[in-house]
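FORM 7B: Structural annotation worksheet

SECTION A. Query
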Amino acid sequence: MLRERRAIDPDSKKMWRSAGTAGALGIEIALCIVIGAGGGYLLDRKFNTHWIMYLGFLFGIGAAIKGIVRVTKQYKRESAKEDQQQGGGGDRSN
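SECTION B. Predicted structure
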C-alpha cells in the first residue's frame, strides 16, 4: 500500500531551507579555516618556517568571509523576490 503524499507547508519548507543553508554555511566556515591553517602548517613543516600557517589561517578567514557575503547576497535577493511576489515592493536595502 502506498501512502498519500501530503503537500508541504510553504512556511515549513522555507524554514527547513533556511536551516539547511545556515548549517551548510557553518560547515563551510569551519572547513575554510581548517584547510587554510592545515595547508599552511604542512607547508611550514616542509619549508621549515613558522609563518606560513598564519598566512594560511588568514586566507581561510578570507574565504569564510567570502562565503558569508555570498550567502547574505543570496538571502537578500530571495527576500526581495518574495516581497515582489507578495506585492510588498518595499526596499529592504538596510
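SECTION C. Observations
The chain has a mean pLDDT of 88. The helical segments are 10-47, 52-86.

SECTION D. Sign-off
Analyst initials: ____
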